[in-house]
UniProtKB/TrEMBL annotation:
Cofactors that this protein relies on: FAD
Name recorded for this polypeptide: UDP-galactopyranose mutase
InterPro entries: UDP-GALP_mutase, UDP-GalPyranose_mutase_C
Keyword Secreted: no
Organism: Deinobacterium chartae
Superkingdom of this protein's organism: Bacteria
Molecular function, one GO term: UDP-galactopyranose mutase activity
Keywords: FAD, Flavoprotein, Isomerase
One CC-aspect GO term: cytosol
Family: Belongs to the UDP-galactopyranose/dTDP-fucopyranose mutase family.
Pfam families on file: GLF, NAD_binding_8
Enzyme Commission number(s) of this protein: 5.4.99.9
Amino acid sequence: MTERGGFDYLIVGAGFAGSVLAERLANELNLRVLIVDRRPHIGGNAYDRYDDAGILVHPYGPHIFHTNSAEVYNYLSRFTQWRPYQHRVLASVDGQLLPIPINLDTVNRLYGLSLTSFQLEEFFASVAEPIEHPRTSEDVVVGRVGRDLYNKFFRGYTRKQWGLDPSELDASVTARVPTRTNRDDRYFSDTYQAMPLHGYTRMFERMLDHPNIKVMLNTDYREIQDLVPWRYMIYTGPVDAFFDYRHGHLPYRSLEFVHETHPVEQFQPVGTVNYPNDYAYTRISEFKHITGQQHPHTSVVYEYPREGGDPYYPIPRPENAELYRLYARDAEALENVTFVGRLATYRYYNMDQVVAQALTTFRKLRERHTEATPLSPVGD
């Protein structure tokens, strides 16, 4: 434990990574934690709130929880009840709204066919352009479903989302998107698919509700790191910013969110509709599908990818991975700072993956506290 008035941990960022670690350190090890965030709220990008119409919305775009990890699901279940929810997405292609990921209905409706699942496998085999060692996102999709489906569903969406052609992006970008030969129209196939019953923010509030945890919002950690005594830091922000961009800026893709409320009960048939080929936005999401809320009006969000702004998506290209490795070496050399989360480790993680990473990190940190470490008055 620290001296009276000091903190064992200064945690930078109150999103999933920071909040999970704060909760574990306080509850399991009885350590004192100060969690700092530059935004005026906890929860990071998963933060939700009620808008002026009284509809629960996600200001930073839809956050759909899904995981195959019983450990992650059971851990979060300590802080929330769940509403079962299976997300469905349609893509606006050739004047139709078609299921995505591509499945049997997608192909049959698009081309006016009546294939069976077995015949769809043969269809994919006939149009695919197999590439022995796929390197790019284009290689992955064209090698799986052929060039026409690639052009209709993937190429335009990817170019808008990343500002790059799929031929310029790592294969991992589109490798995440499955292709199905049955009629399963769920966007995810994970074992656990549910939404926090009362919202993400309520879940985070319960997670951080501990007398050993203090929360400071609207604050850049640099403003207080030399004023408040602490022993260790957990950093969840952009790793290049931590090191003052000494090796250069790591490229990120950002998003602009435009929220609208409409005087109708339902705006679109599913939670999200993708627009791969039309308009400047990539998708429209309607929150009432996702939350199950009953309301005479409905709120939606349009997503416009941007080059500048808050960092959301690390851009997966080999040269960016090489630049990150320079920062990773710097990070490993620091004995009293641990880097956790999407921005701090420059990886595109889903929410459950961040929680899993945080729980794994906690187990490693627990070993640290077998020996006492003197408190530094300025965090050195």
